[in-house]
Amino acid sequence: MRARGAAREIFEAALASADPRDAVARHLRGLDPAYRHIWLVGAGKAAAAMASAAEDVLGGRITGGAINTKYGHAQPLRRIQTTECGHPVPDEAGVAGARRIEALCRDATEQDLVLCVISGGASALLPLPAPPVTLADKQTTTQLLLECGAPIQEINAVRKHLSAIKGGQLARTAAPAAVLSLILSDVIGDDLAVIGSGPTAPDPSTFAEARQVLRKYGLEAPPEVMRRLSQDAPETPKPGDELFLKVRNVIVGSNRQALDAAARRATQLGYRPVIVSHSVEGEAREVAAAYAAMARQTTGPVCLISGGEPTVTMRGKGKGGRNQEFALAAAIALADARHIVALSAGTDGTDGPTDAAGAIVDGETLGRAEKLGFSAGQYLEENNAYPLLEAVGDLLKTGPTGTNVMDIQLMLVDG
Q: Which residues contact 203 (CB under 8 A, 6 or more apart)?
C-alpha cells in the first residue's frame, strides 16, 4: 500500500527536522570567549546528541561535564562523562549521575559558564531525592502518577517538590555562575517550567499544588513523600528571583517544527496536509477513535497531522505504550477502511517500556489480527497492544533517534 510507505517517509522528515545537532551548533557559534571554564551538564533522551554537537563547536573550551541519558541512548563523547540510567522510572544510576551534575554546578564560579542541555525524559533521568525522600519513594510515586494517567504538568509538579535539583534548583546550585540552557521541548506549549521539570527555569508550582495532585487522583504515596510535601521546606525558586538574571533558557527544537516538516513532505508526496493539532492530549484510545472518524469523513488524498502527548490509564498489565495504544484503537476504528493508514510514534524512538517507537496500521490490520487468533478489543482493554501489533507486522522500530519532541500522529487518506 502506497500510503504505508508515505507515512514512514513523512515521519522520517519530521524526525530530521527535530535533529538537535544543527540547532545546538547554531546557538553556540559566537559564544562569548571570556568565560574561564565551560562546564557542560544535562539530561534527557537527546542529551548525548546535544552534548556531542556542543563538543564539535566548542572543542577544548569545554573544561568537562556530565550528562544523564536513557539506557541505549549514549553517544561517544570526548570531554563529558555520560551516565545511562532508568526511564520512565528513575534508578540508582540516575541518582549517581545527578550527584555528579550537582557537584559540577556547585563548584562553578562567577567567571564560569554552566552550559546545560535538556531534552524530554530529563525529569526521570535527573533524580536527586530531597530528604527524607528516598529513590524507592520516588520510584513508587512516579509509577503511581504514570499509571493514573496524570498529564505531564501535574506529574512534574510533584517531582519538582521531591527533588533537590529540579524546578530551578540546578540554576540555584550553579549561582553565581552564568547558565545557558539549550532545550529540546517535549511538552505542549514549550513551557520551560515543565520541560524536564525545569531544572534551570523558575518554578511557579508549589508544595500545596503537589499535594493537590496526589489528592486529585487518590494516590497513596509513601509516607516520606507525604512528609516531604507537608513539611515547611524551602520553596523552589520562583519567577522574579534574582538568580535568574544570569540564566538564559533557549528552546532549540519543538514538536511544532517537526509537524511543519511533516506537512512539507506530505505535500511533496502528493497529499494535502492538514495540521489538526499541535497539542494532542487525552486518552490515546479516545483520541485515535476521534481521528479515525475524521479520516473516514475526509476525501483524499489528504494527510491529517497532529502532535502532542496523549496519556494511557492503565487498566491491564499488558505490554505497549501510548503510541501503540493509539495505533491499535485506530486499527479497530478503521476496520475495512482500506484507503486509510494511521501512524503514531514517539520522536525519541521508544514508546513505553518497549523497543518500538509506535506503529503503522491500516484498514486491514484488524482482519490480519483476527486471522491469527487475536481479539483486538480484548488486547486494547488489557493495554497489551505490543504483541498484537508485533504479530501482524505493524510495529514501527527506529531505534534511539537522538531527538525527542513528543509524539506524532498521521492519518493518510488516499483518493
A: 160, 166, 167, 168, 193, 236, 237, 238
Q: What is the pLDDT of residues 214-235, one digit of tens each?
A: 999 999 999 999 999 997 788 9
What count of other Cβ atoms lies within 10 Å of the Cβ of residue 64?
13
**For strand 247-253 and strand 178-184, is the pairing parallel, antiparallel, or unpaired?**
parallel
pLDDT, residue 103, reads: 98
In angstroms, the CA 6 to CA 412 distance is 8
Task: Tell me how far apart the alpha carbons of residues 198 and 196 are, in angstroms, rounded to a whole number.
Answer: 5
d(CA 66, CA 48) in angstroms, rounded, equals 10
Which domains can be identified in the chain, with CATH numbers? Answer: 2-12+256-413 (3.40.1480.10), 20-253 (3.40.50.10180)
What is the SS3 assignment for 34? Answer: coil
Which pTM does this prediction carry? Answer: 0.85
**Helix or strand run (H / E) with residue 38:** strand 38-43
**Secondary element (H or E) of residue 366:** helix 365-371
State the DSSP code for 99.
H
Task: Give pLDDT, residue 323.
Answer: 98
8-state DSSP, 165: S
Q: Is the dihedral of CA 376, 380, 381, 383 positive or negative?
A: positive
Mean pLDDT score across all residues of the chain: 95
Bridge-based pairing of strands 358-362 and 395-396 is antiparallel
Long-range contacts of 8-12 (CB under 8 A, 24+ apart): 8/343, 8/360, 8/396, 9/265, 9/269, 10/262, 10/265, 10/266, 10/269, 10/303, 10/305, 10/343, 10/410, 10/412, 11/262, 11/343, 11/345, 11/396, 11/408, 11/410
